[in-house]
Amino acid sequence: MSMPSKVVLGWREWVALPTLGVGAIRAKIDSGARSSALHVDDQWRFSERGAPWVGFRLTPAHAGEAIECTAPVVDERTVVDSGGHGTLRVFIRTTLRVAGVEREIDINLTRRHGMAFPMLLGRTAMVKAFTVDPARSFLHGRAGPPVRLHVVSPDPARPHP
Fold this sequence. Notes:
By secondary structure, the protein is mostly beta strands. The protein has 1 helix and 12 strands; from the N terminus they run E-E-E-E-E-E-E-E-E-E-E-H-E.
């Protein structure tokens, strides 16, 4: 019985988060990291029908315009960074598109100022679909054209920070 082949990614790729309105963002593909992380400029918490939600703002470097989104909180846990520092982070679930593959992933929201990549794609997002060739990069081009703002909220009157 043969295993289905996995898509090969380079150590850095353009990815899209279409549910969040992000048509293309540079991501470091990091099999050493368990979880995926997304740089946000600002985030705020609120409740929607008694459930925890998060609002956040991000600015993909190539887009120039800030994107504001809201999403239900799927988890909140301590993440230890490469320097050994633990911080409590909010996790959301969103659609990832890379190399023609779309899948739902969990991603934590954090401030990644000073990092070369606004997104880190960790191994839980890659399992059973992707493998990494660390000698290559940007194998699949941009994930798609930038998408205009799409707010993920059941209520158009979203709270402000």
